[in-house]
Fold each of these.
Amino acid sequence: MRSIKKIRRIFSKTYAIAEKNVRIQYRFKYVMVLRYFTPIITILMPIIIFDSFFDFNANFGPWTPQNYMVFVFVGYIIMLMRNMITFIPRYLLQEKYWKTLPALITAPFNRFYLLFGYIISEFLGILLPFVLVLIAMLIFFPISIPTLIIVILMFFGVGIVFSGVGLFLGAFAISNENYLYIFDFGARLIFWLSCITYPFQLFPTLVQNIINLNPIYYLIDIIRFTWIENNIIFSVIAHPIHIYIFVICLVIFPIICVSMFNIIYKKLGISGY
Amino acid sequence: MSNYIIETFNLSKVYHLQKGNLIHALDDVNIHINEGEKFGLLGPNGAGKTTMISILSTLIQPSHGYAIIDGINILKKPNSIKGKIALMLGNDMIYYRITGYANLKFFCKIIGVKDYKKKIIQVSKEFGMENWLNEYVERYSSGMKCKLSLCRILLSDPKILFLDEPTLGLDVKTTKFIIDKLKHLDKTIFLTSHNMDVVDKLCTEIAFINNGKIIKYGSKDDLRKLYQKQIKIFIGIDDNKIKLKQELEQQDFITHISIEETGLKIELLERDYYNQLFPIFGKYKITKIQEIELSIEDLFLKLVV
């Protein structure tokens, strides 16, 4: 009974943060529209290039003219979700200058709620294009309902990892904005080497070796494989490293990032406003 | 166990500036505040007031020393005091892009207020904000933002209110309204300000802070007594204002003279010298002699400036 009450309390606080964030974001509706359309620009070029390459019978590993739209659309959703890394520090920066952050920090609530609140609000924010793109993917390359559920859960997992990174960057947004831009550049570099818009096989060997060290690449790649293979057991057996890295990231990233947020905040406090 | 609700022990904060420079924002500050007391921390800009309130509200950590709030060491158990305190830095700390109601509802959920609708109506009525709750905060005046902010901090029914310059930039009427409301709250208030009038009207205990050090600390009346030896007098005079001023300037026991519209204001080193003024006054056509009570502003100017 007590644990049910506790869960309800956690949900209530998390939902309150999400609701507030969505209300603030929707205050300016065109910003949201721009947010949906910007990732389209990034995937538009790969769509054109892929189409031309396939005319010359080029080979990109498992990607064929029949399934490459899955690759591109997963890339679009990841680009939408990547905003979590950019927007969470931006929200925290706003809260710092609005002086609402001290009001939150001095309130009796756990910072994990803040993380989950941001994840939910970001998901709510991208819900419409997310659903539309999933429908488009199902039209281009149909999959079974269990696989679809697994893929949606995987996207949610990626959202948790990205939000964790966002919160880590957010710690610098409130404590030392200099470091924010340094780490933001690092995050951009990691994403650049995550094969979001171009397939792994397109890169030279040296770059492929670097990409192999990037955990974000595995998170994105396993979602694509799960979709086109349409058999979760086969995907787990065929890509064990991807699965290990996915699970490890899902568990470790939020813990490390929230801990880092707490450590950085405790050591440096709020500064700059 | 001590009876004080707030106690600080050698509280210090050092900020590291660029090029290795250090600044002592707080330097061995020791204060103790009783439950229900209205405490005012007065000081000029950069004296350490906001640093003090930030440490006590667990926003930042001290470099040295510690504080006990309601029997809890804030360094060891910062989360344990969060339900007991509420902080207001400046006169907003609310979200401008959502409505007043959405603000209060959000903070109710965050702090876990059970019947939030009832609570929102109760606190908003207290500050006359009930008809403005459905408006976006960005459309509020400064006074309304301040009132909504005060509603926010009262949602959790905290024991202690930390208020940093709450009436900054507000008009006289709104300031008076807010002081009256705060005065009648059955809560401990820790107020920082450089507005002497606000502190004078609201607080019973006052500390003067300058360069991170508490330079005088005590009840408002005790502090006044300290300076009762000194005396400030208004002398009403129609003609020969300048001549009288020149003559008074030759007296060693007069520390300050200023020319007013209808006379002169003078400050004596000690009350005992009062009688020595009458032979001088006899030479002029004096219309009024009135002793002026020392205000908190006078004390502040004597101590800090």
Amino acid sequence: MAGGRCIRAFRALLVTLAVLGGALAQAQCRPPATATRLTIKGFASAYFQQFRTDTEQNSAELYGGVCLIGADHAWTLAADRVSVSGLQGALRVTAASPTLSFQGWSATAGSLDATSQTLSLGSVELTGHGVSGTAETVRLDLASGALELTAIDLHGAAFYLRGDSATLSGDRLGVTAPSVTTCHCAGPPLYRVDGASAQVAVQGQRIVLSGGHVVVGKLEVPLASPVTIDAAALKALTLPLTIEDVTGDAVSGTPAAGLEVLLTHLGLAPGIYAQLGVAGLDAGHPLAGIALLRGGGHGTSFTFGEAPGGMRYEETSDQAITPWFDAGFDTRVLEPGNRDTLREGVLHARLHTGVAPLHGSAALAMFAAGSSQQPSTGEVAGARLGARASIAAATPPAPWGHLSLRLGGEASLYPDQRASQWGVDVQPGYGLRAGPLDLQVSYLARFTDGGSPFTTSLDRLEPVERPSGSVTLAGALAPGWRGSARLAAQIDLVGNSSVAAGVNQLDVSGSLTRSVGAWQLSVSGDAVLAGIVTPNGARDGYLQAAVGASRGDLALGAEARYRYAPAYVGLDLLQVSAAVPIALPGAVVRPYLALDLAPTVTSGALPTISGHGLDLTLPTCCGALKLGYRDDGGTWTVSVAVDLQTHMAQASSGATCPTRARATPTIADPAAAAPVCAAGSDGTGIMTGAATGPPL
Amino acid sequence: MTPDGAQSYDISTGVTTLPDGGTVIDQDTGVRLHAKRLTYVDGAYIDASTVTVSGAFGTLTADKLHIDVPKAVLTASGDLALTRHALRLTAVRLTYDAGRQVADFTGPVTGSAPDFQASRLLLDAASGNVLLVGDYRYASGPLTLTAPEGGGRLELKLHQVNGSPVYDAATDVSSELLARFAAELN
């Protein structure tokens, strides 16, 4: 605890010093009242103690605390001695060891060589906007204010950045041939991200890098473009790996593949990535490989490869021709195991517009397809031609709520089967939002002849008469407690091949949370009553309640579930769980264990392990690496995060933080100085794939 | 002394008046003085008006001039101008110590070569070196130098470049020049 307080106090001191340093860095040189002033026409005003001219050399020399202030007051330059030559011709100003202040930046250089148009600095050390570093040269265009740098090597609270050249405007830095890392390692960083160009918001510690690839040792992996390196936290890093139990979905046709391990995003080239994995790792499912090539962009996407159940090929293109007209095509080859095999190509076009007087929209879509499906009843193949129209309208929001109505109709022809299908949807609704209350009620009626020769997984329609509704309360529900409560219901008045007639949804759920000191308390309940009201419905019924308490990484919980299923009625879960952090030398582990006491209560058997997991936090020179997995009743999750805040706190705890000025760190040897000592800030950082790019 | 016209001598006071002016030449120093009107007492003083004085220190013009002969001190005022070597200036008043060869111009003193303004200028007539004192402004090409708040000193040192006399400026005044003007600065 004392160590933690020391670290926090030290970090606070560093932040204070960084803020003070930043303020000093931005402070421009100020002339003393006793200084002599020299105006250099069209260039600057200079303040100093001594001055002399040399007519023979056509020059002048300023010395004794020289302060130059640009004619436009946009920059200042401090030096011990400044020489001005070319007094009768082209003006030239030179100085040794000058410090240039410009737009919040402070650049201390080995030399200055200026004309009336530009300031050129050599061997520059830069500080400002929360970063510091070096540049081989800095050139300031006095007319445009553009700052050009070469051979930059900068470090901030969250990153190290190197580049061949850069242009700076305010705190916006455009870098060519950038190389970025968040590592603070002795020697070469564990990884870096190289790119063709980067845009850096220096103050926000955010880098958007284009044409990038990760370099780990001699391994280079291309990344989708752009990649965002953000100064938030690596703890939001998305691991490109999933482990899950794929149970299958009858509606989408996804086969039950069992336990599946999948590398979800292996970048191959800009816009193209692979998915590799294995399914059926548990008993009861066939072992199957997953090898998919995926990509897309600009309204198109494709998937090709092998997945559980068979080969898969999909390609879609949907282009907005005008703001009100889209057109495109789809080709699909799906072989989902023992389900319906589908091969088809579709051309489609869609007209759509908003209808302001009705507070709604209208759309008309047409398609022409060639489809081949192999359901268990035999192959169906042929052309499909169809059109769909829809219109949605609503009343303006009012204190009493709003009414809505959606009408839709579609018709399809199957020339090869001499068949047709029509369908009409009518869906009125009512909604009310008032404070914490959200009420939604609707009624869906679908009338159809169900005339498609294909199955419902492709386009066959079935009658529906479905009232549904939900009411939700969310917010501060009791003094000191926040939470939500929700009731949702759905009744199918007619049955079809997908659902039986009856109450198919009647869910009641609620949760409350409260803070008590450092503890977070939670209570939740969940009741799925449709399976009780309609015993042979699609869902089993159950009642479930849970309580939890957490403090930091320590989490305790208890959960009970009473199940109403055709095969079993009774207590089927009585779980207690705990996740306890344990500090070890060089690491923190947090095991998680959940025990199900229901077998003990119901039959006197030993408790069973209903969940297990482990989180591991390892300090590395790239941040605190956090790895974890959890199996909660068959639901697998894996996680990875890099916490730069911990990384920086460790750096500032004395292990590497200098007590005196150290050599400027570089991306090749960033351990030359602790970045937090120079930059301060909140010490957090993030490095993830952007929404358009893959995670690293 | 050569009168340009009439000359009168007051035997009661010993004052000689040249109402039409005349020329006075000091055979020892080579200084030549010409005035539109001259009054003098031999061995005591010379008063002159609309005067031009030329000598080793250059050429001086002024509305009024007084020479204290025993003290060898010249004072001049009124539309006062000096031209010598690389120095051309105008001032309000001049005090010249012929014995020490130090001229003290007060002003404003304005120089056209070099380009300067000063509240006071001290000239070493022997070397030609100059010291601007107090509130001054000095310009050279694109540079314009201004004295610090409260005044300062700027040395203008005369030397030859390619055979031509030029002045170089320096705020770090040489100790020799300060010693030369010690009487005026104290």
